[in-house]
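Handout, section B. The chain below has 64 residues.
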Amino acid sequence: MAFMEGVMNCYNAFVVGKLTANSVGADELDEVHQEDIEEMDITWQLAMTVFCAKNFIKRTGRNN
């Protein structure tokens, strides 16, 4: 829950235009684990692959 609150605070600061590079502390960046970043990267790549496949099916009409 605290993570989502932090994300929303950063998003709101970004929208208002008050989010700067210095507003995120270095200690907060150290809390992100390498495995989490790798998992997010794999998830993103899989989502993009599915997105591209769906667009290909729409454009070509093939559904094999």
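Note. Residues 12 and 18 are 9 Å apart (CA to CA). Compare this with the example in section A.
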